[in-house]
Amino acid sequence: RHRKAAIELPELGLAETRAASVVAEAAMLANYSYVQLRSDDDVAPRLNSLTIAAEGDLRALRAEVARSTSVAEAVCFARDMVNTPGGSLTPERFAEFAVERASGVGLTVEVLDADAIAEQRLGGILAVNKGSSHPPRLVKLTYEPSVDVLADLDGEPATVALVGKGITFDSGGLSIKPADAMVGMKMDMAGAAAVIAAMCALPALGVPVKVVSFTPMTDNMTGPDAQRPGDVYTARNGTTVEVLNTDAEGRLVLGEALVLASEEQPD
């Protein structure tokens, strides 16, 4: 079934281009649903196509709609990642999704595997990952403004750094969560999903700053070599950290990402 709609924009008190942009973004976000794992046949989107009728500069209208569409697509990507079960969205798979999307929009991509994470002395990520059967990943994305965007700048672009937590499932580790508290812990990677999605929208938005992101990825499990309360690890910046509660995994991985981000000397 092909579901389609058409909207004629009335006088809204907004510029026509802005109104068209808002309508397109709202339609895409309202139409979102996570159907990848549904077993029934009725999984078609509620709306397949939308036609917007508006007066004004056609080129400007299309450009604004394209911008809002890029934002909505980024949001939907983040929602897909958050909705994917932790047993399916392993750190390796999460990194693969990030690489595929980021490479497709022209970002510079670097992925650290377990050996590279160890070489970079990212002790917090390794400590959290000790109880897992899946190796960790750290994804670094870099966005550079295009030549056209740089032409409008006075001097070098500023640098912004983003970090996001990518805990693909959080059991709490040996400081294990109660069963009810584990429900929804597939979403403990939402910070990384939001950062990756935002990074991938930057080229379409023509953002006039350099942006670099670090998203550490691991689950926090109770395997036979899981870190124990009282264990001490050494972070990249040389700080030794005693872990009293293994359910504090977020600050361990984000601490390492913040060190890496700081080394970029962002503005």
Features:
alpha/beta, 267 residues, two-stranded parallel ribbon, five-stranded mixed beta sheet, 9 helices, 18% strand
Structure description:
- The protein is of the alpha/beta class and 267 residues long.
- Helices cover 40% and strands 18% of the residues.
- It has nine helices and nine strands.
- Strand 1 (4-8), helix 1 and strand 2 form a beta-alpha-beta unit.
- The model has no long low-confidence stretch (mean pLDDT 94).
In short:
With 267 residues, this protein is α/β, with parallel strands linked by helices.
Largest sheet: 5 strands, mixed
Helix content: 40-55%
Strand proportion: 15-25%
- Calculate the mean pLDDT score and round it: 94
Fold topology:
Blueprint: E1 4-8, H1 16-30, E2 49-53, H2 58-83, H3 91-104, E3 108-112, H4 114-119, H5 123-129, E4 137-143, H6 147-151, E5 159-163, E6 166-170, H7 179-182, H8 190-205, E7 210-220, E8 232-234, E9 240-242, H9 249-263
Parallel strand pairs: 1-2, 5-7, 6-7
Antiparallel strand pairs: 3-4, 4-7, 8-9
Helix pairs in contact: 1-2, 2-8, 5-9
